[in-house]
Specification:
heterodimer; A: alpha+beta; 6-stranded antiparallel beta sheet; 4 helices; B: alpha/beta; 8-stranded parallel beta sheet; 8 strands; globular
């Protein structure tokens, strides 16, 4: 078993009008910052209610979105499935910890009729 | 993940030593034909979906499985399923669908340890398996390989300076 708490990393995208905003713009647009913080809180609350394993919501600034790290695969799977219900969009890329290389390897997410797989 | 000092690769043949005892030397990675001993295995290399699911359903804890890229893509959300380690281009070692499971278990073991590999029940009767084993040993001069067997000792690995044939009765020496 891996002794790492986070085996999966996925990026949750900001709402379209919040993406690609530089720090200077954000300093002037408190309304956008409020919306971004609100979204982060909403996701964190949802994760608290739905995850059975550990998770971490990154507070590092990123123009595209913010990273969420998960310990357990079923939690990630559920999180991806619930996008439309809760109202968020995840990036089409997932980082999975590789026990051999000790690194996160990125994979493309594919939505198929039989479920979510990687490309 | 912290790499292990020792790891045992359990090949296709039966182990002459009970697996519980063998486990005292470190974690065990096996090919998938030792299902009856699943509780003693730490990792399994398998390319068969049915076997993969069987190992994942073991109680109280599933066995960590290393599998092919195709199966990994499908089972990526299972915490115990791992992809085959990236292999750098290596001379004299051709990996394809015909590569023996023992060779692939050995290559997986190389990614999990930093010092020594013990080979138990490793069937080298197939010339390709033996050739691949020699190639792996020679490509990893920093690693020490111990081939465990009953008398007589095999001479097949004699010219590999980092490999040694050890009898089961002398295995205690490895604990030193």
């Amino acid at each position: 078993m891996t002794d790492l708490a986070t085996n999966y990393i996925i990026k949750v995208l900001w709402p379209p009008h919040c993406q690609n905003r530089g720090l200077k713009v954000l300093e002037e647009r408190a309304d956008i910052v409020k919306e971004m913080n609100g979204m982060r809180s909403k996701i964190e609350n949802f994760l608290k209610a739905s995850c059975s394993g550990k998770f971490t919501v990154s507070d590092e600034y990123d123009m595209k979105g913010f990273n969420v790290a998960f310990e357990q695969g079923p939690d990630v799977y559920n999180f991806i499935l619930e996008q439309a219900t809760i109202g968020y969009e995840v990036d089409r890329e997932i980082g999975r910890y590789n026990i051999f290389s000790d690194k996160y390897i990125k994979h493309k997410l594919l939505y198929t009729a039989k479920g979510i797989v990687i490309g | 993940m912290k790499k292990h000092n020792y790891i045992t690769v359990l090949g296709r043949n039966e182990s002459k030593m009970p697996l519980a005892q063998l486990r005292e030397y470190g974690p065990i990675i096996s090919v998938s034909n030792h299902m009856h001993d699943a509780s003693h295995l730490d990792y399994v290399w398998t390319r068969n979906e049915k076997d993969l699911l069987w190992f994942l359903q073991q109680q109280p804890s599933p066995v960590d499985c290393v599998t092919t890229p195709e199966l990994y893509k499908k089972y990526v959300f299972y915490d115990q399923v791992h992809s085959f380690p990236p292999i750098s281009p290596q001379f004299n070692l051709t990996l394809d669908v015909n590569t023996d499971d023992q060779t692939l278990a050995l290559l997986s073991a190389l990614g999990l340890t930093e010092k020594r590999i013990i080979l138990v029940g490793y069937d080298i009767s197939n010339p390709k398996v033996l050739k691949d084993l020699r190639s792996v040993i020679m490509l990893h001069p920093e690693m020490k390989f111990y081939f465990l067997c009953n008398p007589p000792k095999t001479k097949q690995l004699d010219y590999c300076s980092n490999a040694e044939c050890i009898l089961f009765k002398d295995m205690e020496e490895l604990k030193k």
